[in-house]
UniProtKB/TrEMBL annotation:
Organism: Thiothrix caldifontis
Pfam families linked: XisI (PF08869)
Protein name: XisI protein
Matching Gene3D superfamilies: XisI-like
Domain of life: Bacteria
SUPFAM superfamilies, sorted: XisI-like
Length: 111
């Protein structure tokens, strides 16, 4: 089982895997932003689709009080599931994008 000290490494490894999905001719490019000092890890996308400019976070994770908080998840499989697959306990993952009143029913940590 992973420990708190491994969380940044695990998160970074998973987010960096998403960069491999960009192809050379994609007009929407992905990038990552890691802030170890403040415990913030973000996967971003930006680019043009036709006449529309798209930009925003695809995944946002924070380390808060020894827990991994998934603040935003725009993936199909679910970044929380990927974190579990990588060895992080569900008891240490909070789905921050879920209302506090329903977190207890998610199978992940409620706080």
């Amino acid at each position: 089982m992973a420990t708190e000290l491994n969380y940044p490494e695990i998160i970074k490894k998973i987010l960096l895997e998403y960069l491999k999905y960009d192809s050379a001719d994609d007009v929407i490019k992905s990038s990552v932003s890691f802030d170890d000092e403040h415990g913030n890890y973000v996967l971003l996308q930006a680019g043009w689709r036709g006449d529309d400019y798209l930009q925003g976070a695809i995944i946002h994770i924070q380390l808060i009080d020894s827990k991994v908080w998934v603040q935003y998840d725009g993936t199909e499989y679910g970044i929380a599931n990927e974190l579990v697959d990588a060895g992080i306990s569900k008891a240490d993952i909070v789905l921050g994008f879920r209302h506090p009143s329903v977190r207890q029913y998610t199978g992940f940590a409620s706080i």
